[in-house]
Amino acid sequence: MYLTMEETAEYLQFPVAFIENLIQQGKIRALHDGENYLINKEQFNDHLEQLEKYKKQLAEWQAEPLPEDMDIKDED
């Protein structure tokens, strides 16, 4: 499925100018039909999967209780 730059920006939650810049740098593959750039949505699957994995890891890390500090018990 192909998306326009505006649809891609909304899908990735980035500004349109940022998406356009990534296309110009060659970091996003796109087809130019004469007027618009068309971007294949499938190329972002790995990126979005990694992002979800990192979010899950961060949530697990934040849910971990802090260990009790042994030095605190020794104070008067």
Automatic annotation (TrEMBL):
A single MF term (Gene Ontology): DNA binding
One Pfam family in the UniProt entry: HTH_17
Domain of life: Bacteria
Domain Helix-turn-helix: 2-50
Protein name: DNA binding domain, excisionase family
Source organism of this protein record: Lederbergia lenta
Taxonomy of the source species: Bacteria, Bacillati, Bacillota, Bacilli, Bacillales
